[in-house]
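Q: My labmate handed me this sequence with no annotations at all. I'd like to see what the chain might look like in three dimensions before we decide whether it's worth expressing. Could you predict it?
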Amino acid sequence: MRHAIGIVLVAVLVLGLTSSSAPQSLTPVSFRLNFVAVGLHAPFYLGLDRGFYREAGIDLRIGEGTGSATTVRLVGNRSDLFGFADAGTAIIGIAQGIPVKIIAPIYQMNGFAIIAAADAGIRTPKDLEGKRVGVTPGDALSALWPALVGANNIDESKVRLVAMDPAAKVPAMLNKQVDAILGGADDQAVTLKQRGMPVVVLRFADYGVSTIGLSIIAHQETLTSQPALVRAFLRATVRSWDVARRNPDVAIAVQKKYIPALNEAIGRDQLAVAISSLFSKSSNELMKATDKDWLDTVVLLARYMGVTGRFGPKHYYDQSFLPDSLPTR
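A: Here is what I predict for the chain of 329 residues:
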């Protein structure tokens, strides 16, 4: 009899342990990056690896992207639940009727920059006069060029703009076909340095053209139908970026497990630029931009990129799903 009771007790204990340690039900979530996975995306992989999303009840699946505009469309047609896209591109999409919202601005300062050869004598935007500058007509950088000209009193007639595809910018710099390009501080600038070319990086944000950059976006219907999931996703994402910014080398090492082709040296430089973009001059909270930053962004986009400003900045974003308490600088 005692033996039978013992067996029952052991069975109860085993069942109890199994029940308490069983994984909670996870919600599949697809998350689309803005481009192929590079170092600036390391925080998302850190959060995935450390189980931050799993603790939030999320089975996260990260998909690589082919550009912010495509990511905005994929979230807009609900192919992906969340996306990582340039805020300016998302705002243009919203203005065109794509039903998404910006819910967390990770880059509160865009990564757009003038990238000049160190020996070209370019130390300020005004120094572009008399120089050759590689640009891609129609992209966000070239669209904001008039703003840079106006803010820095550049005589545009003295600047020779050389049209080229994005992929041609780095070779054009290496081959001395241009003196500077309009590019990404976390993209072409890092690549050129890694290839041994010293460059000067003048970020638009430091010269009067500051817009909010890469951000988390979601479909408007998701915000109304699954608010708890949106909050859980952002809670895990804030945690991921906060840990990564304090441990960038660890974040890159973790990302290497998921993206074996990642160049760790380039990845570390890209992540460093991303971390330097987390706060604007007027912001102090991680992933939450100030009203002034939103207003400045929409005004610039309305003036130079044809976005209507008649709805006001809050037509394009909703930061109410972020945690009440956010990490600060």
